[in-house]
Amino acid sequence: MKIVVLIKEVPDTWGERRLDLETGLTDRAGSTPVLDEIDERAVEAALAHADAHPGTEVIALTMAPASAAATVRKALAMGATSAVHVVDEALRGADLLLTAEVLAAAIRRTGFDLVIAGNLSTDGGGGVLPAMVAEVLGVPQLTALSRLEVGADAVAGDRVSDAGTMRVSAALPAVVSITEALPEGRFTTFKGIMAAKKKPYETVDAAGLGVEAEDPAVPRYIMVSVAERPPREAGIRITDEGDAGEQLAAFLIAEGVA
Questions:
Q1: CB neighbours (10 Å) of residue 235?
Q2: 152-171 burial code (b ≥16 CB/10 A, e <16)
Q3: Residue 217: pLDDT above 50?
Q4: What is the phi-psi region of residue 152: left when phi exceeds 0, alpha when psi lies from -120 to 50, beta otherwise?
Q5: I want to staple 105 with a disulfide (CB 3.0 to 4.6 A). Which of 55, 205, 207, 209 is the partner?
Q6: What is the pLDDT of residues 69-101, one digit of tens each?
Q7: Which CATH number goes with the domain that contains 65?
Q8: Are residues 34 and 12 in contact, defined by beta-carbon separation less than 8 angstroms?
Q9: Structural domain boundaries, residue 34
Q10: Measured in whole angstroms, how far is the alpha carbon of residue 104 from the centre of its chain?
Q11: CB 133 within 8 A of CB 105
């Protein structure tokens, strides 16, 4: 079986994250770049299946600047078989649809039985990319799974909703996304780090995938404005002088809560 895992380099969630006020994009130099934790869990899910089924190939796939190579190699150090890194300056600031088209083209090129992704990245937070990739590939999708079971010709899992837990399944090939309910990624070892240096690592651009990068003069979307979040202001303090209840009620009504 061939499993492709979508991974992403993001600013460290424990650090301060900012937007570039000129481009509107995330300021990648503003904090330490790391492999998104949800993607570590996705890699772990693929590796867990590979551990139990010898011969399973796990391919880490990302679309990111060349500087993300160290982050990609972490997935190799965890145990992924190989990596594919899409690097193209023309894709900088690509929207979700273009990103899905590029990733789908890379997935078709490598071949796949199953694609595993995190359900939501910590920097963009679109939460729709796995579904869009599945749509472009024309295969079934199982999203936001809190439990994952991979069989020889089908995949199944549980999806938790406000109404309860749904049991879903699909025939392979398919795309799935997982939540933080799945196990954390395994720690990398010195042996794994050294082995990662010798594993296949392919770099490809949009042209190599047969995808035409967008003409910068014809944007697919337009950013209206970008600004820093205003500093937090002091809250309203209600002093009880016999009318605290009335003040609180008036405040809630003014805020549209009551």
A1: 6
A2: eeebbbbbeeeeeeeebebe
A3: no
A4: alpha
A5: 209
A6: 999 999 999 999 999 999 998 888 788 888 999
A7: 3.40.50.620
A8: yes
A9: 2-209
A10: 14
A11: no
Tell me what percent of the residues of the chain surpass a pLDDT of 90.
62
122 found inside a domain: yes
Q: Which amino acid is at 162?
A: D
Q: Does residue 217 fall inside a structural domain?
A: no
Is 257 among the domain residues?
Answer: no
Question: Cis bond leading into 65, ω under 30°?
Answer: no
Q: Return the number of other C-beta atoms located less than 10 Å from residue 137's C-beta.
A: 20
Domains of the chain: total: 1
Token representation of residue 21: 């006020």
- Rounded Cα–Cα distance for residues 186 and 65 (Å): 25
pLDDT at 180 over 90: yes
pLDDT tens sequence across 145-171: 999 999 999 999 999 988 899 999 999
How do residues 40-78 score in pLDDT, each as one tens digit? 999 999 999 999 999 999 999 999 999 999 999 999 999
Could you tell me how many residues make up the chain? 258
Q: Does residue 226 sit within a domain?
A: no
